[in-house]
């Protein structure tokens, strides 16, 4: 950084500039640069030696005590990072020496700084410059986490001269390509990074110094295992690798064996101790999960059809809290957010899921992060890993987590950095025993609590009203129903998630739907049992003794409305009984026609059947409309005997075809031979010419009459305007304002005039101002007729 001399005041006009000081500065400039380079080299060498020989003290707490550069210390201090967390004080002395690190610590413990500080220091000590290309690469599982890491990097690295870039999906690929080759540090998601490595010309990572894998277990769980393997094949083996995760799984261990060289294992629990491991009965080892110290966690048992009512009741009773609500699928998040917004709970509502556009996701993430007061964010597990939402007081898990690791990451969004927070999990009766056992196996004990059922406000009627009034709400509810059952069906732990035991009918009613769609992926045995029970009930109601076969059994094409607990049928029950709801048929058609077939294929069909008619003459034709019956008979008649014939009868009563052709020879003989036929043709042509002449005369007379009427109306208008304009004559008016009328001397000549055409061609056409519209067309027609008459 160059230093400026003392101020010399404003420049005086006419005063010659001083050239002597500039000459001296030019002579001293090379010497100054050389001294600065030598001094910088000396500082970097000394810093390198300090880092390699650094032995951390037992009470190491401050970043200022680490062997790091002054630029990094200033950036940390400017960002208010002064004291280190246990994972930082344990891992930084090792990673600053250039060794590979496999780190595990509880969520919210500050793992981001544990790998960003070494990234800056390694590149600084190796004198990395803009022309050296990519020096450090940070891979994150989600876009929001990548954005958060990039913001922290900009904050603590503001006094360094490195160029940093963010490469995530959802942005313009061409803009990223233009800047990619100039970046020293990249923060990226796996998919977009691999796309650039395969397609972007000039993007190389041959000189990579540091590779960081943040939330490595989540990267593998999201299906990026093959992508990550392809990325590692592009990177040089002579690099430093830092792998951090809140949970250590077998897949992470496998990844560490493939990507790390002699890594130093660093595991930090509650009291700065290593994470303990437990020996299982099947000789497998499992680690005990660490939770934040300030976390208060509970669970309650809630039936599936009461979850939304209990959630809405919780929001209404916590209007001053910042709450994060986790649901299992994107479509559930969208439905709950849209429906609750229409119900106006009195608190700002937001939603975040993986199917949103990148701009919307970033806007929601920023808005909820900066929200200092009360707010509710409905989200999927895309917000469960690594994201730091300041001030989150409550974390609600409306849908149970997939496993214990997911539970730990979800509740880790609160009680971060020695702050306090609360977590509440909703469990169905079929999930309670299995989920508690899975959590206890990993050392997580969750106490049980109860909700005040008498004060819970049920929202089924409000959702039914919304679904009937707004087709979008009903459509979103149908998709949410299917996506939830699909997520339960796809969970690996079948001891916890039992899709066959879910009360699907009551769940559909709780979403405001008139009935539950039929789910194909339920087991055939369970479906058969339910069908047999329905048949038995119907047979008992109808008074039949024997069982009805499947082919003869009645089919319910419509969901019947059920009375409420008091036995009273409401207006909404009658509404949903209607057979023809045209306003909703479009959304049913989307499901029937296979909307989003790539996602929901073979997972949903409505309770409707197409009745195939093998024999059209059977008794079942009575159920078909009369129009279809007539069409069927007409088709059969055509197939059997061809098209029908229409006959006409002559004067003698003989039948003939409607368009029967006469015999050519007989017709010529009947009309006097060839000469007679020719004479008849000439006579017919002469008659047609006479008709045309008569029509032409009538047309001319009509045109003349129209012209006279037009001229008369124009004269009347001129007289009226002359009277109103203070005595201005009609002649003067016509001279000033020409409306394109042709004077009478240019009218069509009479039929008796032989030299009319010669006079017409001899006189020059009058000058007039032409107008657009019907007047110009009429004048053109008139002139064409006059030219024709002249010939």
Number of discrete helical segments: 28
CATH architectural category of the domain at 42-287: 3-Layer(aba) Sandwich
CATH superfamily of the domain at 42-287: P-loop containing nucleotide triphosphate hydrolases
Q: How many strands, what sense, and barrel or not for the largest sheet?
A: 7 strands, parallel
**Topology-level CATH name of the domain at 42-287:** Rossmann fold
Quantity of strands, as a count: 17
Helix content: 40-55%
Question: What does the model show?
Answer:
47% of the residues lie in helices and 10% in strands. It is of the alpha/beta class. The chain has a seven-stranded parallel beta sheet with strand order 3-4-2-5-6-1-7, with helices on both faces. Strands 10-15-14-11-13-12 form a six-stranded parallel beta sheet, sandwiched between helices. Strands 8-9 form a two-stranded antiparallel sheet. β14 (394-397), α14 and β15 form a beta-alpha-beta unit. InterPro entries: DEAD/DEAH_box_helicase_dom, Helicase_ATP-bd, Helicase_C-like, P-loop_NTPase, RNA-helicase_DEAD-box_CS, RNA_helicase_DEAD_Q_motif, SPB4-like_CTE. Residues 538-551, 748-757 have a biased composition (Acidic residues).
């Amino acid at each position: 950084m160059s230093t400026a001399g003392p101020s010399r005041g404003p420049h005086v006009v006419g005063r010659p500039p001083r050239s002597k000081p500039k000459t001296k500065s030019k002579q001293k400039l090379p010497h100054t640069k050389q001294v600065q380079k030598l001094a910088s080299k000396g500082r970097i060498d000394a810093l390198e030696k300090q880092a390699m020989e650094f032995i951390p003290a037992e009470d190491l707490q401050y970043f200022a005590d680490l062997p790091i550069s002054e630029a990094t210390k200033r950036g940390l201090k400017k960002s208010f990072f002064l004291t280190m967390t246990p994972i930082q004080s344990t891992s930084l002395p090792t990673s600053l020496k250039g060794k590979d690190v496999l780190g595990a610590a509880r969520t919210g413990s500050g793992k981001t700084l544990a790998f960003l500080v070494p990234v800056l220091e390694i590149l600084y000590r190796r004198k990395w410059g803009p022309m050296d290309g990519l020096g450090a690469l940070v891979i994150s599982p989600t876009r929001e986490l990548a954005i958060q890491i990039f913001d922290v990097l900009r904050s603590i690295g503001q006094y360094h001269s490195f160029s940093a870039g963010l490469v995530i999906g959802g942005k313009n690929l061409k803009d990223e390509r233009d800047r990619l080759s100039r970046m020293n540090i990249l923060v990226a998601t796996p998919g977009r990074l691999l796309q650039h490595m395969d397609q972007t010309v000039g993007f190389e990572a041959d000189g990579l110094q540091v590779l960081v894998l943040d939330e490595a277990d989540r990267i593998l769980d999201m299906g990026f295992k093959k992508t990550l393997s392809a990325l590692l094949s592009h990177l040089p083996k002579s690099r430093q690798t830092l792998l951090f995760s809140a949970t250590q799984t077998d897949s992470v261990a496998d990844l560490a064996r493939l990507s790390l060289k002699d890594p130093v294992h660093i595991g930090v629990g509650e009291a700065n101790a290593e994470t303990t491991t437990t020996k299982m009965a099947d000789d497998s080892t499992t680690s005990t999960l660490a939770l934040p110290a300030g976390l208060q966690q509970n669970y309650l048992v809630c039936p599936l059809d009461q979850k939304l009512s209990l959630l809405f009741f919780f929001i209404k009773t916590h209007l001053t809290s910042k709450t994060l609500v986790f649901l299992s699928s994107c479509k559930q998040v969208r439905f709950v957010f849209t429906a609750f917004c229409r119900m106006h709970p009195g608190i700002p509502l937001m939603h975040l899921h993986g199917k949103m556009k990148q701009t919307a996701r970033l806007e929601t993430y920023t808005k909820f992060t900066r929200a200092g007061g009360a707010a509710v964010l409905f989200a999927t597990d895309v917000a469960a890993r690594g994201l730091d939402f300041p001030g989150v007081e409550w974390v609600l898990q409306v849908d149970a987590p997939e496993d214990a690791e997911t539970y730990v990451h979800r509740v880790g969004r609160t009680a971060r950095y020695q702050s306090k927070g609360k977590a509440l999990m909703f469990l169905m009766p079929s999930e309670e025993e299995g989920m508690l056992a899975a959590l206890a196996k990993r050392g997580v004990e969750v106490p049980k609590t109860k909700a005040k059922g008498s004060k819970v406000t049920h929202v089924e009627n409000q959702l039914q009203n919304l679904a009937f009034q707004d087709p979008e709400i009903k459509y979103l509810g149908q998709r949410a129903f299917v996506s939830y059952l699909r997520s339960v069906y796809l969970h690996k732990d079948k001891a916890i998630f039992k899709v066959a035991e879910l009360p699907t009918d009551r769940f559909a009613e709780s979403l405001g739907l008139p009935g539950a769609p039929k789910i194909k992926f339920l087991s055939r045995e369970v479906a058969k049992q339910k069908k047999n029970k329905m048949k038995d009930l119907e047979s008992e109601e109808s008074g039949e003794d024997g069982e009805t076969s499947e082919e003869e059994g009645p089919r319910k094409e419509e969901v019947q409305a059920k009375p409420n607990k008091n036995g009273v049928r409401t207006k909404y029950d009658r509404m949903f009984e209607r057979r023809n709801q045209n306003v909703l048929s479009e959304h049913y058609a989307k499901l029937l026609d296979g909307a989003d077939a790539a996602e929901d294929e073979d997972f949903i069909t409505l309770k409707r059947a197409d009745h195939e008619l093998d024999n059209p003459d059977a008794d079942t034709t009575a159920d078909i409309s009369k129009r279809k019956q007539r069409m069927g008979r007409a088709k059969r008649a055509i197939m059997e005997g061809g098209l029908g014939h229409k006959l006409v009868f002559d004067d003698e009563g003989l039948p003939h075809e409607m368009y029967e052709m006469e015999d050519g020879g007989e017709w010529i003989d009947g009309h006097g031979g060839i000469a007679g036929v020719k004479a008849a043709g000439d006579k017919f042509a002469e008659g047609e010419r006479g008709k045309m002449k008569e029509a032409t005369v009538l047309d001319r007379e009509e045109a003349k009459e129209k012209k006279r009427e037009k001229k008369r109306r124009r004269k009347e208008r001129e007289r009226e305007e002359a009277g109103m304009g203070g005595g201005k004559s009609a002649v003067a008016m016509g001279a000033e304002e020409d409306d394109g009328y042709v004077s009478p001397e240019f009218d069509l000549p009479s039929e008796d005039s032989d030299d009319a055409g010669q006079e017409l061609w001899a006189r020059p056409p009058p000058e007039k101002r032409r107008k657009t519209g019907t007047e110009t067309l009429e004048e053109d027609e008139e002139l064409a007729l006059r030219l024709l008459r002249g010939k």
